[in-house]
Amino acid sequence: MNGTVRGPAAAARPRGATVGHLATGVVLPVVAAAVALAGLRVPVPGGVSVLDGMAVGLVLIWALAGAICARAPDRAPQWPLALGTLAAAVALTAARLASQPPAGQHQLARAGATLAATLVIACSCHFLLALPGGRLGSRARRAGAGAAYLAALGAGLAFALAGRPLPPLVVALGLVAAVGCALPAVRLRYLRATARDRERLQWLAIGMVVAADAALVIATLHLLVGWPAAVAAAAAGTTVVIPLSLVAGGVPRLAQHGGRLLVHVLWVAGFSLVVSAVYVVVVLGLGKGPTDGHGRAAAPACRVAAQDHGPDQGRDLHRRRSAGTGRVGTRRGPAVDPDVRA
């Protein structure tokens, strides 16, 4: 017989890969989705907020993206992706449990929400360090991932022991800091990656740039015109393009166009950044109403006069100001006040 007999080690590797695929591609995504949906059923004062609904929707999309990416083990780091999604679901549900009345009586749930939220930050850093194939590899990357988990654990314990919830702004800043610290390592992997891995990294970069640019535009609109009112929920909703781009990078027909699309996305993002900065500086920094008696300055003065001296004298003041400023170019010489002329 010319058949090949597999040894125990060769048979153990496929079995271990199958178990890992089942855990990261089926069990953990399903559990994360179930925990997130169960959190919506927790009764809290005010019901389900826009931010809570948006966060649960993001958890469901990340769980679906993790299940899809698990079909190809080398497409993305599976374990940090699956564990980070589950930690986010636990953080949302525990936070809603901690918000139940009476206030201050759910310290264990609040501590669990805080620790789970910091674990999401650590898993995000681990995910980026392990790109594109899911392996940390070098000792420096393993040390960086370990430092991220230790820092997250320390921050979570500090907030939990103090009995304080972790503010959403702190979580957002932590995620930004994790991305910023891991970007140099991602760039090194990109320079040494194969063409297929580069395409996946390009699509992930597209998702991150689009999310950041959309969040910037939303924040600028909120500062200028006060819309949208739920700015935190809207900004969080922009991150939905990140798991979608992660999935798109694994589709061969789409992956080959990632490079050209990334160039256009970076151009649009740079243009949006410049326009947003100009609007914020001009409108908020230099945009003040006129003080020469025309337009906006005249109307408040008339309203103050009407409140102090009655509507008749207020209208008289407005008539006098109009007589003094509205005849420029229609007659020579300064306008004469009606009282002085009489």
Mind summarizing the main beta sheet? none
Could you state the order of secondary-structure elements as H and E? HHHHHHHHHHHHHH
The count of DSSP E runs of length 2 or more, i.e. the number of strands, is 0
> What class do helices, strands and sheet pairing give?
mainly alpha
Cα(first) to Cα(last) distance is 127 Å
What is the helical fraction, as a range of percent?
over 70%
Topology:
Elements: H1 8-40, H2 50-69, H3 78-98, H4 107-129, H5 139-161, H6 168-192, H7 195-225, H8 231-237, H9 241-248, H10 252-255, H11 258-286, H12 298-309, H13 311-325, H14 338-341
What does this structure look like?
This protein is an all-alpha fold. The protein folds into three domains: 17-192, no CATH class; 195-288, no CATH class; 293-326. Helix content is 75%, strand content 0%. It has 14 helices and no strands. The longest helix is centred in the N-terminal third of the chain and has 33 residues, at 8-40. It is globular, with a radius of gyration of 29 Å.
Q: Summed up, what is this model?
A:
It contains 14 helices and no strands.
List keywords for this structure.
mainly alpha; single chain; disordered N terminus; 342 residues; 14 helices; 75% helix
